[in-house]
Amino acid sequence: MANIKTSEKKTKSQAMGMHTEVLTGRTQQKFFNPDEAENFYYFGTYDVDFNKRTDLDVKDMTAAEANKKIDGLMSEGYGTIVIKNPQGKHSLGVGILNKLNLIFEGSLGYFGIGSCDGPIVRINGRVGWSCAENLMAGKVVIEKNAGSCFGAAIRGGDLICKGSVGARTGIDMKGGTIIIGGDAGAFTGFMMQRGRIIILGDVGINLGDSMYDGTIFVGGEIGSYGSDAVDAELTSSDQDWLRRKLKVAEIGANFDLSKMKKIVAGKKLWNYDNLEPTEKKGAI
Amino acid sequence: MCGIAGLIHRGKSSNVGSELQGMLQALKHRGEDSTGYALYGDTDGKNFIMRFKVGENVGEGSSSIVEDISVYDERKKIVDQTLSELGAKIVKEERTLPYSLRYEIAYEKKDLLEFSQKIESIPGVEILSMGKSLEVIKDLGNAKAVCDRYSLDKLIGTHAIGHARMATESGVDIKSAHPFWGYPFSDVSVVHNGQLTNYWNNRRALENKGMRFMSECDSELIAVYIAQKMREGASLEEGMKDSLIGLDGVFTYFVATKNSLGMAKDTMAAKPLVLYESDELVAMGSEEIAIRSVLPQEINTYDPFDGEVKVWQI
What pTM was estimated for this model as a whole? Predict the structure, then answer.
């Protein structure tokens, strides 16, 4: 267990007032020092060559076997891996903390591409619930539809579904961008804290319910607004950003962006202020 | 958690027993306390098929009380006598297991309420299904175990729904297993994944209207609720749409009749459902892998939205 104590040795972040204590014990805070950069190792990453390509048929594999095999191929330097016959299996392509071109020729079940940081993933089929949950960075493109809780709690990266998605898309998201080419279900953006969601089609009831922050753009009809979700003015810079993002996502080329609705948090549900959490801590 | 699956062939028959077994077995990780099948077989439509039980499966994991098999024999005798008194003639009789029976019955009356009430007034006897096409088979264990026990893999029909159960709200026994027959309507069955939070309020109201509950499983409420709506003159689809307001909680459920299959999803969309739809076949399940067991090739599937009700005809 970690303990908290005040340290006399100041790190740079502490000197900036961001931390006043350190953790000791088995779990300790580690602060990045450029002088020791070579000693930092990001567990589970490999040097891969994007031109080194291979196929992997997972038809007769369990999810764990398939994921271990992907890891093994990355350790051999393969930078482009094509997964054949995923056949709706759950939890495929999870925990990849690497730059990687990963292509699924077929559909995934639940929790696909979960907890990833960095890969570029293209799925030619559909995905089930909770696709790309906790995505940190990278790009995930789904050619068909997606289930509920799409992009739950993502921190970064671009998550693109060219079809329609289920309920609670972007629930609890803390960063990144989710782009939907079709419609989205109820409670889209539920409790989102940061990041942006773009929906070109219609969206269901309770849009942006209890959202803390972030922005939702909707091109079609809105079933209803959730608590504290309010309209905001769509600026020209918003439209420029949307144009760039949709171009990257390869969808909505002819979409009239001036008709987009912009929804943000009204910030009436909580004691909002402009302080970052770390600043609040310092103030206390 | 529980898993549900269903399929309907449009314009043709198929080996629905085997197909549903594959779908439910793919969902066994969602619960294998019990598994149930509602199969709509090809019949000549003359006689009723009555699936009923005269006792419980008291095997490993069961929450039922052990009874002597001679008790089952006694109950069967009383059922036979009651059928005779009702003017029903047993055309064919099968006793698959000591506690589980299948009768083909020649019975002229259309109203099954009095019929069902008399049969179920016999202690320990429950009609699992009554219909001219429907057969509900449910027992403890996973899909393959139940399919093997009742030799369901050869059954030819047009559509079927099934349920893999993880018992949470009530006991591990056949009476709490799905599917539930839409008593007293011929050929109506229901499977459900979720939890109903206004079960007791609805149950008391429906019991006051003369509807019967055989278990304390909240899912049974859906079958009874829709049956009551149909008694009041609503169509199946109208009854299902009404249930989105009348039933509180989280649910995805399927209802099947002799000619149709329907699905409904609650307004929170809190329970999963993946759906494949074509001109020839509709297949749906709690997870895509259920559909993949009958359609291994790449297909287009989608999740129905919140508050969605759909009904397909054969």
Answer: 0.84
